[in-house]
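Anyone up for a design puzzle?
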């Protein structure tokens, strides 16, 4: 692209701010402009939502809709790096907005300081290009999965506990793929199912190594940018698992459950 053509799409400050991304042939000026026109909803501004929202803001995603009902507490600061010590007691969405606009004033940050109902989530997901789940409990993840399925929008899902993490992408914008409920059926109350689920409880009960939340959140942010720009292959139909104690990564294939209560066809 000629300099003149590039300047027609982005101003001088943007060309400089995003230059290291624009140098990537997969992104270039057109890709950067596309990011600047994109809308992403980030659910949860905790250990995952912090790196997710910070990298999406610094990368120049045009609008971030951030949702979190909580206030910043001292025990959050170890891993929730979008919040600083002087934000104690603030709404997490207000604290995050301050940090994110400090990183990049170009980004429009829309905040919801409450838990959205399923109907509201569906509506908000319809208005977004991609939804990212950074919440820390199963109830929220099931609701978000159903809402994204209903809205037909891709969901980038992540979870972290202790020194383990997992990431997957559910392409509700394409037919035939699995959903989060295919992986962890909500209705599964059998002992085997509980065993699987109980190992991925809320980190407030089990603890989490801060940097492991950072790793998983960064992978989620990367998958979001790839989805927005159509780069490479995302973790669709695959679950990426990290055990940071041994620093071993595993990928397992995910199959659609035809009897899934959310996306099943039978
Ligand atoms: Zn399903």
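Challenge accepted. My sequence:
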């Amino acid at each position: 692209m000629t300099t003149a053509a590039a300047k027609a799409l982005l101003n001088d400050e943007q060309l400089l701010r995003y230059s290291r991304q624009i140098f990537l042939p997969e992104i270039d000026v057109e890709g950067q402009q596309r990011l600047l026109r994109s809308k992403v909803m980030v659910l949860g501004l905790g250990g995952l939502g912090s790196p997710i929202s910070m990298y999406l803001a610094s990368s120049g995603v045009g609008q971030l809709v951030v949702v979190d009902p909580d206030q910043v507490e001292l025990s959050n600061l170890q891993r929730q790096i979008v919040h600083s010590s002087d934000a104690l007691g603030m709404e997490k969405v207000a604290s995050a907005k301050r940090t994110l606009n400090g990183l990049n004033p170009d980004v429009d940050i829309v905040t919801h300081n409450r838990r959205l109902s399923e109907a509201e989530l569906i509506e908000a997901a319809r208005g977004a290009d991609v939804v990212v789940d950074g919440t820390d409990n199963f109830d929220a993840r099931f609701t978000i999965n159903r809402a994204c399925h209903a809205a037909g929008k891709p969901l980038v899902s992540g979870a972290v506990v202790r020194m383990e993490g997992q990431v997957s992408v559910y392409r509700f914008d394409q037919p035939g793929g699995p959903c989060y409920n295919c992986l962890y059926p909500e209705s599964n109350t059998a002992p085997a199912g509980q065993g699987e689920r109980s190992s991925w409880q809320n980190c407030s009960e089990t603890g989490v190594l801060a940097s492991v939340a950072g790793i998983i959140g960064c992978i989620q942010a990367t998958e979001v940018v790839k989805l927005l720009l159509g780069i490479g292959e995302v973790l669709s139909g695959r679950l990426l698992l990290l055990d940071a104690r041994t620093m071993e990564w595993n990928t397992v294939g995910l199959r659609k459950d035809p009897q899934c209560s959310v996306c099943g066809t039978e």
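A detail worth pointing out: Confidence is low (pLDDT under 50) at residues 189-195.
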